[in-house]
Design a protein that fits this description.
The chain is mostly helical and 226 residues long. The protein has a single domain, classed as Fumarate Reductase Cytochrome B subunit, CATH 1.20.950.20. It is built from 8 helices and no strands. The radius of gyration is 20 Å and the shape is globular. 20% of the residues are buried. It binds protoporphyrin IX containing FE. The site of protoporphyrin IX containing FE has 26 residues, from α2, α4, α6, α7 and α8.
Length: 226
């Protein structure tokens, strides 16, 4: 029963919140659809932290798509044997994971320790930072430590198969029963952040606000006389 709750009901509830929450937010609260930048309070740490986080997370996303989405047999057919995959996942995944973690650590300490940034933060901003930090830490820990500590464990035969089952509405919760705790927590917190996503500043991802990099703090617009 608990396995069904954690590995079937909970992920679907989070996915439903993710999809319908975005529709709701877009329809009812479009004005607050923003990254809520705090760069006018503190710029240097934000720039370094944000750059590290974003440089790290993009390859990590591609790693998740290939590790979770592409079956082992297809990888082998493409010429990527298990050993090669493992080396890539640990070294490349580990490297970009650490870059993401460094960025997230900087962003979270900045948000909590800088008085004015903290005062400007809503509860949801703090939850997003702490949750992302926890997820990224657990992901890096699982990749670099758990994979070595439990060498017989292969997430591509358990987590990945379960994950693809979820996407085709045929999940098998029993595949997750013997997964090490660090991976389990990483996955559960991962789904949680997707469930909370539409109600936080993370919605800015869909607007790709690249103009933030070079924009002015304040925009002056000429008053158009009729
Ligand atoms: C929602 C479902 C998710 C699943 C099923 C999942 C699964 C995994 C797995 C299996 C690994 C280990 C990869 C390896 O050992 O080679 C991993 C690592 C990692 N995950 Fe996730 N993850 C999820 C969500 C997230 C989210 C939302 C984030 C970040 C915001 C994230 C960040 C990371 C990082 C930084 C690593 C370590 C670097 C890497 O191996 O790519 N994950 N994840």
């Amino acid at each position: 029963m608990i396995d069904q709750l954690l590995w079937v009901i909970f992920p679907y509830v989070c996915m439903a919140f993710f999809v319908f929450g975005h529709f709701y937010r877009y329809k009812h609260d479009q004005f607050s659809w923003t990254a809520k930048s705090s760069e006018f309070i503190e710029k240097k740490q934000l720039m370094i932290g944000s750059l590290l986080f974003h440089i790290g997370i993009i390859p990590v996303i591609f790693g998740h798509i290939s590790g979770l989405g592409i079956p082992k047999e297809w990888m082998r057919a493409l010429g990527v044997n298990d050993h090669l995959y493992h080396i890539g996942a640990v070294y490349i995944g580990g490297f970009f994971g650490i870059v993401t973690l460094a960025g997230m650590l900087l962003l979270t300490t900045r948000r909590l320790a800088k008085h004015n940034v903290r005062k400007l933060s809503a509860t949801s901003d703090i939850i997003v930072n702490v949750l992302l930090l926890t997820i990224v830490f657990l992901g890096v820990y699982a990749t670099l430590v758990t994979n070595h500590a439990v060498p017989d464990f292969d997430y591509r035969q358990s987590i990945s198969v379960w994950f693809r089952g979820l996407l085709i509405f045929n999940p098998d919760a029993s595949l997750m029963t013997d997964v090490p705790l660090t991976f389990k927590m990483h996955v559960l917190f991962g789904f949680l952040i997707f469930g909370l996503w539409p109600f936080t500043r993370l919605v800015h991802v869909w607007s790709v606000p690249l103009n933030y990099v070079g924009r002015s703090y304040i925009l002056y617009r000429r008053h158009q006389r009729k």
